[in-house]
């Protein structure tokens, strides 16, 4: 499968899916609290996506039953929403995808509940910042692994974290998972050239301990082998014809976080 390059008009359509995913994650962030089940959060997400004219892309994906993934504590990704009750002090990663008019958006965040363990908070913050630094490293004429390298470099500069090896980011467009695969580690200067029209989902996944994972008996949930807590942050972004990036799943297009890193976002989608 080749990389799918998009026109500005197509990226503008992807922005609609991106906004819907961003709003859905914001809704979950507002409603998450001790005592609520992951299934209740999933219902909120599905209702929000469908009432806005979208389709939850996770639902039915290779038999997945939720509209979100909800992964708690040592679960890092792909947790199935259901009866599990969220507790005080939990670390909860929520991943969400939606399709609007045939175009996909995909994003994730980690929420650390009160009472906050400072090491959990740092875990989540390091993961999130590595995502933004990865996106900020995307330059027209550069290579895909420039992003991978920047993610790994930042995480390793912040302490000892396990960076998941078998899972990574991906191209996205008329399908959720497309070429190329985006590693969260590696040397820079390899892989496809970064050019205008590319849209990528970047998603670092880290733990406070090991990088080694096991898939649980439910065949989906990916948990840290040593039981250490994990974080997962993700955004879908595009490179536009003005050679600038735009974060399709961030409500502000990534303006705030990228400007803090000295990167201006594209104005072509306004
Ligand atoms: Mg995702
Ligand atoms: Mg993804």
Write the layout of secondary structure elements.
Elements: H1 8-31, H2 38-51, E1 55-56, E2 68-72, E3 75-77, E4 91-100, E5 103-112, H3 118-136, H4 144-157, E6 162-163, E7 169-171, E8 178-182, E9 199-202, E10 205-207, E11 213-215, E12 222-224, E13 230-232, E14 235-239, E15 245-247, H5 255-259
Antiparallel strand pairs: 1-4, 2-4, 3-12, 4-5, 6-10, 7-8, 7-9, 9-14, 10-13, 11-12, 14-15
Give a description of the structure.
This protein has helices at residues 8-31, 38-51, 118-136, 144-157, 255-259; strands spanning 55-56, 68-72, 75-77, 91-100, 103-112, 162-163, 169-171, 178-182, 199-202, 205-207, 213-215, 222-224, 230-232, 235-239, 245-247. With 270 residues, the chain is of the alpha+beta class. It has a single domain (8-259), classed as Creatine Amidinohydrolase. The strands form four sheets. The chain has a five-stranded antiparallel beta sheet. Strands 1, 2, 4 and 5 form a four-stranded antiparallel beta sheet that branches. A three-stranded antiparallel beta sheet has the order 3-12-11, with no helix packed on it. Strand 11 and strand 12 (222-224) form a beta hairpin. Helix 1 packs antiparallel against helix 2. It binds magnesium ion (2 copies). One magnesium ion (MG) is lined by residues 106, 170, 201, 203, 234.
């Amino acid at each position: 499968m080749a990389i799918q390059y998009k026109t500005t008009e197509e990226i503008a359509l992807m922005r609609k899916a991106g906004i819907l995913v961003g709003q859905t994650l914001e809704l979950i962030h507002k409603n998450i609290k001790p005592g609520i089940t992951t299934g209740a959060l999933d219902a909120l997400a599905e209702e929000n996506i469908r009432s806005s004219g979208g389709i939850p892309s996770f639902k039915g994906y290779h038999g997945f039953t939720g509209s979100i993934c909800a992964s708690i504590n040592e679960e890092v990704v792909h947790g199935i929403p259901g009866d599990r009750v969220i507790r005080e002090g939990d670390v909860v990663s929520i991943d969400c995808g939606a399709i609007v008019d045939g175009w996909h958006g995909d994003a994730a965040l980690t929420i650390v509940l009160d009472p906050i363990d400072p090491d959990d908070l740092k875990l989540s913050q390091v993961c999130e910042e590595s995502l933004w630094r990865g996106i900020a490293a995307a330059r027209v004429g550069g290579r895909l692994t420039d992003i991978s390298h920047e993610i790994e470099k930042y995480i390793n500069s912040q302490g000892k974290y396990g960076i998941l090896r078998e899972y990574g980011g991906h191209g996205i467009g008329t399908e959720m998972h497309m070429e190329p695969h985006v590693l969260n580690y590696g040397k820079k200067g390899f892989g496809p050239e970064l050019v205008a029209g590319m849209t990528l989902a970047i998603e670092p996944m880290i733990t406070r301990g090991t990088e080694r994972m096991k898939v649980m008996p439910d065949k989906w949930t990916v948990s840290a082998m040593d039981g250490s807590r994990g974080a997962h942050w993700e955004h879908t972004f595009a490179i536009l014809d003005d050679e600038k990036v735009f974060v399709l799943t961030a409500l502000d297009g990534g303006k705030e976080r990228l400007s803090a890193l000295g990167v201006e976002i594209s104005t072509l989608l306004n």
